[in-house]
Amino acid sequence: MKSLNSIIIIDLKKNKSKNHSLIYKKEFEILIDILFDDEELIDLQIVTIDSSLFLVVITNKRLILSKKLSSWNKKIVQCGLEQLIDIKVNVINNNNSSCVLIFENDQFIKLENIQLVVLKEFTNKIFNTRNEYINGS
Predict the structure, then answer these.
(1) In this predicted structure, what is the pLDDT of residue 13?
(2) What does the alpha-carbon distance between residue 56 and residue 88 come to, in Å, rounded to a whole number?
(3) Residue 1 domain-assigned?
(4) Cα 56–chain centre separation
(5) Which residue in 80, 69, 119 sits closest to 99, CA to CA?
(6) Which CA distances in Å does 97 have to 54, 112, 121, 137?
(7) Which residue from 110, 84, 85, 106 is spatially nearest to 97, judged by alpha carbons?
(8) Which pTM was predicted?
(9) What CATH code is carried by the domain that includes residue 110?
(10) Is 117 a domain residue?
């Protein structure tokens, strides 16, 4: 299990994440207990899913979506990178874009209200990390 210390920040800096401060969010604290020692954090981003804010974390093995509903209630969704089939980007304008992550068995997650430049960078990291994971590099 990873601990909230310099190892996590080193992972994020190595992977050129600009969102180091998000590790201090309550949604990230929930994730500390489910991150494995051999998982590397690639990036994290706050996005809207079904009109609610979620923290989306990319690791070298999976996507993790976290929402803190209350002090005793939380929602975590985990998806293995091998389950991701496609990413569809929908450009509305530079300040409001969205994407749909399409998984096996016709499952999908729509990420909304993201600046286009942020969305491009984030979806590229998801896609590249998935390909590295699938190809075993």
Answers:
(1) 66
(2) 17
(3) no
(4) 3
(5) 119
(6) 16, 6, 12, 31
(7) 110
(8) 0.82
(9) 2.30.29.30
(10) yes
Encoded tokens for 59: 């690791």
Show the domain range for 26: 6-135
- pLDDT per position as a tens digit, 71-97: 666 788 899 999 999 999 999 887 889
Residue 31 token pair: 């994730």
Least confident of 26-30, 80-84, 121-125: 26-30
Instruction: Evaluate whether 54 touches 63 at the Cβ level (below 8 Å).
Output: no
Is 25 inside any structural domain? yes
For 80-122, what is the HEC assignment?
Answer: EHHHEEEEEEEEEECCEEEEEEEEHHHCEEEEEEECHHHHHHH
Tokens read off for 62? 């999976």
Query: Which stretch of DSSP H or E encloses residue 74?
Result: strand 74-80
Q: Give the DSSP letter of residue 24.
A: G
